[in-house]
């Protein structure tokens, strides 16, 4: 072997050893976190805008892979297997990279990911304390809003936790109905801005407040003819997580309060949270037209709104109980007027946790609908299991 080849071989060996040492310092570079979440249920009825149907079924089966790519980037892929109407669908819910070492409290995330608006949206469904998201989420965000885009986030160097962020997304799942396929939708359809601030109260309590704004360039619907509602339903059926009620502007206010004796959440803890949604500029008219209100069942309010409040108490390491109340007030478009709808949901859940990785939940839901998508008042019971396999990241606050 020539001296030149020897030097090249030694250099390659040195580089290999150096790379291996760097990977050894961070085990996730060679051993990525791999996890799966199993979700199954039995339900005694159908709920408006919900993914779960009456009878036996599977919720979201989640498969996730995540790791630090190097000292500068982190990456994650999450695939979700769902069953709808006897068919199995595979959806890519997350596929993103995120910076790890940007200065001044800045970070960038790019790819497909959960938007950070509101309180619940950036959390995966299997972490919820109830079998379904509140009606406001199901109506205005399709359950939980994930999309292709980019996020810039900033964490301020303050005593209180204070973060701010802006996002830009494709926005396809939040588009208004397009009956004839003639609308010219913007390619970048959704922009968001958000801020969250929080802190501790002694050693036992903590809190967080949030404000979010979502601008939907493609969210305003237009009255065209009497078949528009049917077309809207068909359009939304193409995307299992599409919003059913859209508008140009969505405002969200959220809060959460958590308590645990002596700050130890393992044995006992309480979480109280709530959110309010207001979706405005939902209805577009041609110049010279106005909203008609020729009888008492017709609305001229060009907005939707919804809210919920919930409380979950873990009274032992293995048992927790939760209560939640929420309602949405929406307007359905018919010709050149709006018909008001209302849905109220009262829910109670009891969950048994054999460990941090397994939950069996029984939930009772009383739903009251006033002219809401043909649903009548009903009492629904749901028995659900959620089981996690493999390593899984820490849950959001």
Automatic annotation (TrEMBL):
Region (Disordered): 220-243
InterPro entries per UniProt: Porin_dom_sf
Signal sequence bounds: 1-24
Species of the source: Shewanella frigidimarina (strain NCIMB 400)
Record's compositionally biased regions (Acidic residues): 223-232
Record keywords: Signal
Superkingdom per UniProt: Bacteria
Protein name (Swiss-Prot/TrEMBL): Zinc-regulated TonB-dependent outer membrane receptor
SUPFAM superfamilies from the UniProt entry: Porins
